[in-house]
Specification:
By secondary structure, the protein is α/β, with parallel strands linked by helices. The chain contains 9 helices and 8 strands.
């Protein structure tokens, strides 16, 4: 999962028409946005107010060891830890019929959450994300970036904000100051999916780059009947570069 491979951005236009955020009638649902590797809940800062304006409750948890929870980074943090983070949020907030969105590595997390707490979820959305199968880890879908030489249990960001598709100078500085090391075990622990495929959940996939592992995931999602959309003009971190367009797609998917 080296940086150039991870991004694979393309200048092609999206294949579907994206409505303006304010043109879609909201249903008052809750949307939980789960960030990807090296990021934190901070990355949704531009998207959150747009969805709230449309009438949604928006929660943006930061996974253990990242972002504002970087002080909790330890060798024991793994994929199961992050699945528990989000599952606990659903439980303690008494959430039902949630639209659960996972970006990039977050696709691993939301799959595990849905397997454990599917009754609380109404719609799974994979945003340029990994789409795991039972018993597989992220390392089974993409090459792992180098770990720290002095601490192999933590993996530095695989690229700069620019390599994640961020081009605005102010956004680059903002994101660069917040990207942090990822617990390596989150990339190597397999996800266990014993009930997910039997559930009748709405499922969608939004492809944002031409990275081979996300393109493969999008094709597999399409074959399996997911609603598939594309935003191919904002790079991997589309929530930072094109928040209005992403918000519009999420609202469009909610009414599909």
């Amino acid at each position: 999962m080296t940086a150039p491979l991870l991004i694979g951005a393309t200048a092609a236009h999206a294949s579907s028409t994206v409505p303006a955020c304010g043109t879609v009638q909201a249903k008052g649902k809750t949307i939980v946005l789960v960030h990807g590797a090296w990021h934190g809940g901070w990355c949704w800062k531009k998207v959150t107010p747009l969805l709230q304006t449309a009438g949604y409750r928006v929660l943006t948890p930061t996974l253990t060891g990242l972002g504002d929870r970087a002080h909790l980074l330890t060798p024991s943090v793994d994929l199961s830890t992050h699945i528990r983070d989000v599952s606990a949020l659903l439980e303690y907030e008494d959430l039902r019929d949630v639209m659960l969105v996972g970006h990039s590595y977050g696709g691993m997390v939301i799959s595990g959450v849905a397997d454990q707490a599917g009754a609380q979820i109404g719609h799974l959305v994979y945003l340029d994300a990994f789409l795991p199968e039972d018993g597989k880890a992220l390392k089974d879908y993409a090459p792992l970036p180098p770990v720290r030489q002095d601490a192999e249990w933590r993996t530095p960001p695989s690229g700069t904000p620019q390599q994640f598709g961020v081009t605005d100078a102010q956004d680059v500085g903002w994101a660069a100051a917040r990207l942090g090391d990822q617990p390596t075990r989150t990339f190597t622990e397999p996800v266990r999916l014993t009930t997910l495929e039997k559930m009748t959940l709405r499922r969608s996939f939004i492809r944002c780059t031409s990275a081979p592992f996300f393109s493969e995931a999008a094709e597999r999602a399409k074959r399996n009947g997911y609603h598939v959309r594309e935003i191919l003009t904002g790079g991997h971190d589309v929530m930072i570069t094109q928040p209005e367009k992403l918000s519009g797609v999420l609202l469009q998917l909610d009414r599909t």
